[in-house]
Write a structure and sequence with these properties.
With 261 residues, the protein is α/β, with parallel strands linked by helices. It has helices at residues 37-43, 69-82, 95-106, 126-141, 143-150, 164-173, 178-189, 195-199, 218-224, 243-246, 248-259; strands at 2-7, 10-17, 22-26, 48-52, 88-93, 111-117, 205-210, 231-236. The longest helix has 16 residues, at 126-141.
Length: 261
């Protein structure tokens, strides 16, 4: 079932399927709930699966000019409230992982567990912030050109040119407006480190790590899983930053197994 709700005057789109323990799926930067489509169908056999278009993505409106992680976490909480769901497994890919951690910090009683897919609890480094600023400048000049250059870099080298995964994600990315891209980049740039959330997390958390990820070094992510007492990880040998698309079967099994705990 597709639906919408109002959040701070903006229309937010979501999808819900199945019954049982709730799983909230949160997409990454320039994505949309459609990236989880195959996961929804399969997970819905055992769970109630909710996927959301974050503000400025998919069919959801922008909310101002800075989409910080706290704002998007609150938006996700409103989605659960709209559906009368008290607790859920929160699964976030990349940007969605940042949002998941903010959700875990703000609403710990609503979390059954966290799964971070190609994501990190660390904030942006100085160099990364410079890259965000450069992206913002370039998007203002030619949004579609920059999106066309950026999206392939999310994937492994062998999949960057012609695969259907890149084309599928690129289609979603081109749907993001200039305002949406800039607002989200600004929000990621100013996000705070949330390792403390993992250290004291009363719920289990699991990292899905791509060994071929060119954006987040896998060794760094493995160390993050050791911050708290409830952490674990899966290291996917052939996966890149887009493991949810490139290593779909492995990621599906991990999410299903973790959510059954």
């Amino acid at each position: 079932m597709l639906g919408t709700f109002l959040f701070r005057g903006a229309t937010i789109a979501y999808s819900v399927k199945g019954k049982g323990r709730a799983i909230l799926l949160i997409h990454g930067f320039l994505g949309a709930k459609e990236v989880w489509k195959d996961y929804e169908s399969r997970l819905a056999k055992n769970f109630k699966v909710i996927s959301i278009d974050l503000p400025g993505h998919g069919n959801s409106d922008c909310i101002g000019y800075v989409h910080n992680m706290e704002l998007m976490a609150e938006c996700c909480k409103n989605a659960l409230h709209h559906l009368s769901i008290r607790k859920a497994i929160i699964v976030g890919h990349s940007l969605g992982g940042y949002v998941s951690l903010a959700f875990g910090e703000k609403f710990p009683d609503a979390v059954l567990g966290l799964i971070l897919v190609n994501s990190t609890a660390k904030g942006d480094s100085a160099d990364r912030k410079k890259s965000r600023n450069q992206l913002i400048k370039m998007v203002k000049k030619d949004r579609l050109k920059i999106v066309g250059l950026l999206v392939p870099s999310f994937f492994s080298i062998k999949n960057r040119k012609t695969t259907w995964q890149v084309k599928r994600y690129l289609k979603l990315a081109k749907n993001c407006s200039e305002q949406a891209i800039i607002a989200t980049a600004e929000g990621m740039k100013i996000r705070k480190e949330r390792e403390i959330v993992l250290k004291f997390a009363p719920y289990p958390y699991h990292y899905i790590i791509g060994k071929q990820d060119s954006i987040l070094p896998w060794k760094q992510l493995v160390k993050e899983t050791e911050i708290g007492m409830n952490g674990s990880y899966s290291l996917l040998e052939d996966a890149s930053h887009m493991s949810l698309m490139e290593s779909k079967e492995q990621v599906f099994r991990i999410i299903k197994s973790f959510s059954k705990r």
